[in-house]
Amino acid sequence: MTAAPVRTLLLWCPDWPVLAAEIVDGVPATDAVAVLHANRVVACSERARAEGVRRGLRKREAQGRCPQLTAVEYDPGRDARAFEPVVAAVEELVAGVEVVRPGACAVAARGPSRYLGGEEAAAERIVEHVAQACAVESQVGIADGVFAAGLAARDGRVVPPGGTPRFLADLPVEALGRPALADLLRRLGVRTLGDFAALPAGDVLARFGFDGALAHRLAAGRDHRPLAVRQPPADLAVTADHDEPLDRVDAAAFAARALAERLHDRLAAHGLACTRLGIEAVTAHGQELHRVWRHDGLLTAAAIADRVRWQLDGWLSGSTGRAGTRPTRPTAGIIRLRLVPDGVVAQAGLQPGLWGETGEERERAHRALSRVQGILGPEAVVTAVLGGGRSPADQVRLVPWGDERLPARPVPPPWPGRLPPPAPAVVLPDPLAAVVHDAAGTPVEVSARLQVSAEPARLTVGAARPVEIVGWAGPWPVDERWWAPSEARRRARFQVCLADGTALLLAVEAGRWLVEAIYD
Predict the structure, then answer these.
(1) For residue 191, which phi and psi values (nearest 5 degrees)?
(2) SS3 helix, strand, coil % of the chain, rounded to 5?
(3) CA-to-CA distance for 18 and 33, rounded, in angstroms?
(4) Angle, vertex CA 125, rays to CA 123 and CA 128, nearest 5
(5) Are the C-beta atoms of residues 358 and 365 closer than 8 Å to each other?
(6) pTM of the predicted structure, to 2 decimals
(7) What are residue 427's phi and psi, to 5 degrees?
(8) Of 215, 203, 306, 195, which Cα lies nearest the Cα of 261?
(9) 26, 14 in Cβ contact below 8 A?
(10) Are 475 and 461 in contact (CB under 8 A)?
(11) Which residues form the UmuC domain (predicted)?
């Protein structure tokens, strides 16, 4: 006897790949945006749809319909990461959530409908909670089975118990999500799910195979697949409270070792290992301290203890603030110490190298840089991260060692007005004042319409001797933030090659010439 479909509540976030690109990469979802996979549109924003962009279009055709379209590459990992807070918000109200795919999650409707005052009240409460907690718009559908609930969610509809077959009967066969099967069914004259469900099950299996038989069951509303509920993530952080404030490094290091072993044992019990460690401390005066440490391999109990000891040494051995070269020491001892595994992987997720651990030289360098950072502060050791922008200075962001290496500006989409390759080898932190003359010795000017007054012939940087310009390209105009007068900036850039073999990037702004970068 076939089990009855489970009454299911499904939450659906429309255009989730587009929203995920906004959450993770900062691409505005209110603009015309399309997410592409294999050069075809898999999702698009509402504004793009208004311009005629549809799923399945090729990139060139979509850009032809919407010239201002922003194209974003499909990234399932990005979609899953961005959807995790939404699932966590749903789990705050209901238990037993199944992630159907990034952008959709389901739960058995019986529990929420009981303690939230009915199915419609539960749907409204969950949608409101997700909007408040995550600032994400969503819709909820309730029906018998996950498949029907997903289709009902697109209209925000609650299908009455037992009414799922009637709800599905009038929907087109494309709702099955199987384009090849839907095309074949239409050529056979089967246009709706009701028509498909009316076919004999044995004939469907013989003609369309196992997948066609499964689709036939879904079309008839006989989806009895049980929900694969998700286990909420365990709280892996460990905390130690101290009645006597820790104001000596040796006492703090002893407490840190015991706490590190507790964290390592807790992670091992879940089959996990730590790759990014958050260290939090609270002093007797209520001061809160926080630092994140990274590691390319797996942090063992000893490695966790070392990093906690280094960080406590850096905090407790800080200066009094007079010299200004070291971080200020806390005004009281530490009464609470907490270790938070910010990044975890399966214990077998990282494998040592063939001749030992993953790069001993890299490990030694990591230890040295982390030690310097623990003593002198997080800003003492920085690394460069490349991102988006129009000028070389905008494309580089310096981040403290161990922090998230995220660009200040998203790399996609292409930035209008960005310099063509190759990129300069040296970007000057402070541009150098310069003067450009023509062959007659008259200063070269650039008009508001980007008209160059004469051919650039000589360049003078500061008090140096003039150097002949043997080649130049430009101008490339940049007109940024014109809508904010206090932040507006308008300039034009040139690439010049000098007689001594030097290649420079010049910019002219408000009538002044500047040397911004040097090419190799």
Answers:
(1) -110, -20
(2) 35, 30, 35
(3) 7
(4) 105
(5) no
(6) 0.52
(7) -105, 120
(8) 306
(9) no
(10) no
(11) 33-157
